[in-house]
Amino acid sequence: MIPMQFEIHCRDTGPDCPFVARAETVEEVVNMLMRHVRSAHECDWFAIEEIHQAARTVIRGQAA
């Protein structure tokens, strides 16, 4: 069985940003993205929650 890797681009959730998170699980990808958003983008809490929800809908899966 080929292992799956997931990724999400920060720009997929709104900000014009080249950051890409890649990991073996959806949870890891979302956590990586959210750490990035909190440290690199000045957002209010509502915007961060919207990004978190959007992230789950745009994660891509690919064979590693």
Describe the protein in words.
The protein has one domain (4-63). It is 45% helix and 22% strand. The chain has helices at 26-40, 45-58; strands at 4-9, 20-23, 60-63. Strands 2-1-3 form a three-stranded antiparallel sheet, with helices on one face. The protein is elongated and about 40 Å long.
- What is the share of helical residues? 40-55%
Main sheet: strand order = 2-1-3
Molecular shape: elongated
Structural classification: alpha+beta
| Radius of gyration from the alpha-carbon trace, in angstroms | 12 Å
Number of helical segments?
Answer: 2
Major sheet description: 3 strands, antiparallel
Strand portion: 15-25%
Number of β-strand runs:
3
What does the secondary structure layout of this molecule look like, with pairings?
Layout: E1 4-9, E2 20-23, H1 26-40, H2 45-58, E3 60-63
Antiparallel strand pairs: 1-2, 1-3
Helix pairs in contact: 1-2
Record keyword descriptors for this entry.
alpha+beta, 45% helix, elongated, 64 residues
What's a quick, concise take on this entry?
The chain is 45% helix and 22% strand.
